[in-house]
Amino acid sequence: MNSQPTKEAASLRGVSFSYNGHRVLEGVDLRLEERDFAAVIGPNGGGKTTLLKILLGLLRPRSGKVLLFGESPERTAHLVGYVPQDIHANKHFPISALDVVLMGRLRPGRLFHRYSRDDHRAAEEALDRMEMWPERHKRMEELSGGQRQRVFIARALASNPRALFLDEPTASVDAMGQTDLYSHLKDLNEQITILVVTHDLMVLSSYVKSVICVNRSLIHHHAPEVTPDMLRLGYRCPVELLGHGHLPHRVLPCHGGPCCE
Ligand SMILES: Nc1ncnc2c1ncn2[C@@H]1O[C@H](COP(=O)(O)OP(=O)(O)OP(=O)(O)O)[C@@H](O)[C@H]1O
Q1: Which helix (H) or strand (E) holds 234?
Q2: Residue-range definition of the domain harbouring residue 252
Q3: What is the Cα–Cα distance from 16 to 66, expressed in whole angstroms?
Q4: Closest Cα to atom 7, ligand 1: which residue?
Q5: Atom 18 of ligand 1 has which residue's CA nearest to it?
Q6: Does residue 1 fall inside a structural domain?
Q7: Ligand 1 geometric centre to CA of 14 (Å)
Q8: How many other CB atoms are there within 10 angstroms of residue 202's CB atom?
Q9: pTM for the predicted model, two decimal places
Q10: ipTM, two decimals
Q11: How far is the CA of 62 from the centre of ligand 1 (A)?
């Protein structure tokens, strides 16, 4: 019997955060285990991106304790590959996929160095893992939304991270690209922890291992199912899901209220 204790990748204890007095997270607790594949869901403005930034040490909470791989995130954030939300803003930048991935090897103090053989090997491996090596010389604007996102994930992988945090990676990716992207993430999850902010509830039951509902409070469900209660809690309105499996297959008409605006 395999009874090895699971190791902690990240944790929050009693964390509260406000932007200029506007409270976004209130006394939240979280324990993310290594090799988890967790989806962060919740309404717009619920605090999902803020949560990721706190875990990465990009924002400091007003109170509470944050640990990333057992230490303060300022010391360990380099162990996490981060794919932020608005990365598509730069899609017309005239740069090849390979150049983008090589940037994942840059570090503070190493900004203007020549890439080493190890840097090139790591970039090749990362592009290969995302099945983008054949496209390495293409400019970013020549790639589809899904391919571009795979390049950005390869960039995050180039530093051989122990975890990957992604903020809405499938925004501006077509349906086929989304499935493809999540399949890649599932493969990566055999080696690394994955935390992904998503509004795409359909992917949850097929790919993820746990679901984190964030809406000022935080509830971590250690199961891949999305339950009606979870949706009500996350979205403050009755939602049903169109998808495969044991979930209801019905699209509801708009029922009024701020969530339908
Ligand atoms: N830099 C900032 N300064 C002030 N307020 C901010 C800042 N960033 C976010 N907020 C506000 O904090 C709240 C939470 O934002 P956050 O981006 O964490 O939510 P989210 O759940 O990721 O939303 P979305 O699904 O729309 O991306 C929102 O009300 C947002 O307007």
Answers
A1: helix 228-235
A2: 8-260
A3: 11
A4: 19
A5: 47
A6: no
A7: 20
A8: 19
A9: 0.85
A10: 0.97
A11: 16
